[in-house]
Amino acid sequence: MSRNTLVEGLAALGPAERRLLKSAFGAALAALALGVLWGAATALARAGFLDLGPLAGYRALTGHAVSIFFYWLYFAQAGLLLALAAAYGAPGRGVAWRPLAWAGVSLMTAGFAANLYAVTSGMPLLYDAPPELAGAPSAEAAAFYAGYLLLAAGLFCVAAAGVATALRPLAAGAEWPVVSFACCAWAGLLMVSAIAAAYAFLPAALWALGLGALPADHATRWHILFHNMHYLPLMATVLLWYALVEAMTGVKSIFGARFSKIVFALYLVFVPPTSLYHMFLEPDLAQSVRVLGSLLSLFISVPTVMVFLVIVSSLEVHARSAGARGLFGWIRMLPWANPAMSAIGFAVLNLALGGALSFVLIQEKLASLLSDTFFVPGYFHFLTVGTVTLTFLAALVYALPPLTGCALWRPGVLRGLPHLATAGLALFGTAGVAAGYLGVPRRVLDVAYDGAAPAAWPILMGIVGIGGLLMSAAILAYALALAANLLPGAARLRVALPEVQWGGPVAAAARAWTGPLAVLVLVGITVGFTMLAFELMRALPLAASGAIGH
Amino acid sequence: MKQDSWLFLAVFAVWAALAIVYATVPMFAMPGYAVVWGWGALVFLGLALAVHRAAKRKAGDTQSMSRGDADVVG
Questions:
Q1: Which residues from B are below 8 Å from A286, CB to CB?
Q2: For a tag site, which of A220, A261, A526, B57 has the least CB within 10 Å?
Q3: Backbone angles phi, psi at A373, to 5 degrees
């Protein structure tokens, strides 16, 4: 494999494959832009800067969550799975089972249209769509559930084509690349999630069509799907880091292909045992299961931390062999002028913050107190926007120019946008988490309560609004800049992105300290956030119980 | 190549075991989880078999190529 396997593999794809991938990426960017606009409107309404009224406000919230959490993340994953599988497989032969892949993307597009129709014309159901919110069966509710089912069917088809494509080098007698193996694992989890989505929404769809009873266990079915949806984008994220770091620096894992494959397989091993924490708010869950769930949930980040260690240690050792000095000198030598490097750098930082905060939420004693507060959107935007979205955008920085043959729009500007997005996210997340600790409800648009709310609530939500606006502006600008690459009039001249070449042999004396040190810091931050949460909760004069989780 | 299919088999084993636990142990009693982890186990079993088959086809092709080379040399 050459150093630029990704870029050269994508450039070698035929016109039919390019059309397929560009369609998936175009749909992903459209979903992202639409979802960001709805998100900005929601943030401004939550801050009291914009009066949307309850119906339009909940439509904006539902449209934001559906467009981003389901369609941006899954159109992007569909395109990136096929792109990686084809580029690292046999690029000359393109995507295997291409008609099935086209059927998948078409089904996903039909699902998006159905969901948009339902969001704009029916009762806004929020993204988990409990049937009780719809009130009674209706065409709009049926369209909403049908949209999710079409998305699930489309994902299954795309994932099957991804597996067939990723297996090609193995069948051709070549060494099976780590990225191809990981694509196969990723596609497997996509298939399982498609099955989980069908399991979650089929009873509700039948009910909305008047063909079945109101599903009593919708919340439980949703939690099963939701658990898979936690893991999937993160698995895609670390795989993309692995591929992009190789493209930008030429560095491969110093631990070897076999160890990397084991780490990616661990993602799949850890999915089912760590799922129990979603059930903590079920009142009839046995205490022993709660304790077991708390213990098992500690393992949720093990695979992500392991991939992080593999990548960071490999980079550090190669950088030291290339002349890096001091504990952090190697970090300065990374190609930060490359927009993808800048996006990934901030993605790592945001993952550390979001990951540490997530450990607060999944503890049994705190889950019931925090799950219905603004703590939840406060922490998960560090993951959905700060980590996954920035990484997917970084991947498109590398994927789109070879597919379109066009230059990237102003790489210097794109390099700066993750700074702005993270600054907005820092305001949104910090104020949001603080608001959650102080009890601001999660799904109430107007938290003023006619002036009866604590004085800190409107101030914190004002900061959330400002942060949300900055974050939205940065992500929207990034999405539009990348979408410009897909337009027929884009400049044809391709400009090489700044990269380094550290792919050679490493010095025997080179050591890597930063990765293990970063993990220690992460554990310290997690303990700190948890202690803070317990202290704040002890200070509040309230007790909580509930029946639904996040 | 053997390791690749064994890794997917290990995933199948974990998912299948969890599905059985959720379906049969009264303390857990989560039939919904059992259904999804059970289907998931089948997906990963299918992947393990697909990987094994692809690797076996490659081994078969390599063997027949080696025999062909020997014939030419002979």
A1: 27
A2: B57
A3: -110, 175
Task: Write out pLDDT tens, residues A359-389.
Answer: 888 777 778 888 899 999 999 999 999 999 9
- How far apart CA B32 and CA A220 sit, in angstroms, is 7
pTM of the predicted protein model: 0.93
Residue of chain B nearest A224, judged by CA positions: B33
**Under 8 Å between Cβ of A271 and A311:** no
Q: Residues A423, A390: contact at Cβ < 8 Å?
A: no
Q: Does the distance separating the beta carbons of A192 and B3 come in below 8 Å? A: no
CA neighbor of A231 nearest in space, from A189, A292, A286, A173:
A189
Segment A252-264 shows an average pLDDT of 93
B7/A163 touch (CB, cutoff 8 Å), yes or no:
no
User: A267: nearest CA in chain B?
Assistant: B11
In chain B, the residue whose alpha carbon lies closest to the alpha carbon of A199 is B36
Write the pLDDT tens digit of every residue in A128-163. Answer: 999 999 999 999 999 999 999 999 999 999 999 999
List CB contacts (< 8 A) between B8 and chain A.
184-185, 188, 265
How far is C-alpha A436 from the chain's CA centre? Answer: 22
Prediction ipTM score:
0.90
Q: Which residues of chain A neighbour B16 with C-beta distances below 8 Å? A: none
Determine contact: A224 vs chain B, CB below 8 A: yes
What is the reported pLDDT for A450? 86
Name the nearest CA neighbour of B57 among A168, A93, A171. A171
Name the minimum distance, in Å, from the CA of B53 to any CA of chain A.
8
* pLDDT at residue A493, as a whole number: 67
